[in-house]
Amino acid sequence: MIDTLNRLSLGQLLARYRLLPAATTLTGRWRAEFVGPLWLRLSAGPSIALSGMPGWYGKRFLDSTAAVNLQRRGDQWHELLPMTCSEQPSWLDGQPCAALGYGAATRRPWRWVRDELRQLDERHCLCLTFVDLPGLRRLGFPFLLVREA
Q: Which of 80, 89, 135, 143 has its CA at 20 to 30 Å from residue 74's CA atom?
């Protein structure tokens, strides 16, 4: 799955995302993988670290309306930046997606970040991160969430 997505350009990943249904059954722990062109995969981890989440591992969905980010440092797990989850129109194409928002009270830059999830299959979600700032709101940065047992 990851190898296939890594061979796609950013435009091809966005086109693939447009074809998918909104993610639904999300409860549990999901590991993140950066996908897409090499330049995008190499810049994603450092970008997240610079924005205050070094060691980002993925997400844990508590139920259909709440989630937290997971950070791993050595053998320690930390839950950071709680999110709300709801079905909303995608900022990319207006079609349904599971949208994760951090809320206005969250520290910068996360208050401006929105993650959108669509289901590839029962173990994989193709996701886009958007930043609600001028010039960035329509640009989605892709990543993959992989369900863990």
A: 143
Measured over all CA atoms, what is the biggest interatomic distance in the chain, rounded to whole angstroms?
40
Name every residue whose Cβ is closer than 8 Å to that of residue 108 and which is 6 or more positions away in sequence.
Answer: none
Name 84's bridge partners: 66, 101
Structure tokens at 29: 């722990």
Domains, the chain, ordered by start: 2-147 (2.40.128)
Joined tokens for residue 133: 């700032």
Going along the chain, which residue ranges are E strands? 28-34, 56-61, 66-73, 76-89, 96-101, 113-121, 124-131, 141-147
Question: pLDDT of the chain along its 149 residues, tens only?
Answer: 778 999 999 999 999 999 999 999 899 999 999 999 998 899 998 989 888 888 999 999 999 899 999 998 888 889 999 999 999 999 999 999 999 999 888 888 889 999 999 999 999 999 999 998 887 777 889 999 999 96
